[in-house]
Write a structure and sequence with these properties.
With about 240 residues, this protein is mainly alpha-helical. It has a domain of about 40 residues. Helices cover about 70% and strands about 0% of the residues. The chain contains 7 helices and no strands. The radius of gyration is 40 Å and the shape is elongated. About 5% of the residues are buried.
Amino acid sequence: MPKDNATSDIAMIGHNNPPAEIDPIDAAIEPYGDAIAEAENWLDGKKVETEDQMKAVDAVLKEIRTYATELGKAEKEVVGPLHKAWQGEKARWKPTLDDAERMKKGLAALVSNFKVKLAEEKARAERAARAEAERKRREAEEAARQADVGDIEAQRDAAQKMEDAKAAQKSASAAAKDKPKGLRTVTRYVLDDHRAALHDIAQNDRAAMTAFIEDYVRRNHHDRAIAGVRVWTEQEAY
């Protein structure tokens, strides 16, 4: 009776394909699966109470330290080339980007003084236009009040004055929009008195002062004694 090769043929399908690619994270985790599971068992919120428990935890901790080290190495193997490629591409773009910034700043500096002067002139013109519009509005309203309904010339004069007032208002609005482009308002400052500024901050922004003090103490408590700060040493597991 001839041999049935159907099952054998099915099993052979795809046998030349490469093995599935393993995720580098999974590959780094795999050798330490038992240690991770044991660590998770211990991390149930209960504190160690005996020396035997301590030794058992220390043994697991030793493996987890090795696991963390190897995991860091595996991460560097994957991320390192990507980071170097990113650094290289950033470095390649940087001179051109910097040059574009220099051009922007240089061109802005060329027109800065003139734009500021022109903006001041236009602001004066706007104020004058608004003042003129206001004058004509009051004049038109006064003419309308005084014009006798039976005096056609007075009525015509009042109507003309109202049209003139509207035109003046329109001109004032146009002047308000006629400003040099590319100007912005910036706030400058000079610190004349450090002590006065410190007292002001302490009085008006306690949160900022507290944040500064806490950060300063964190960075400097090793180096010198700071009034109002207690420093001591104690031991802890690592």
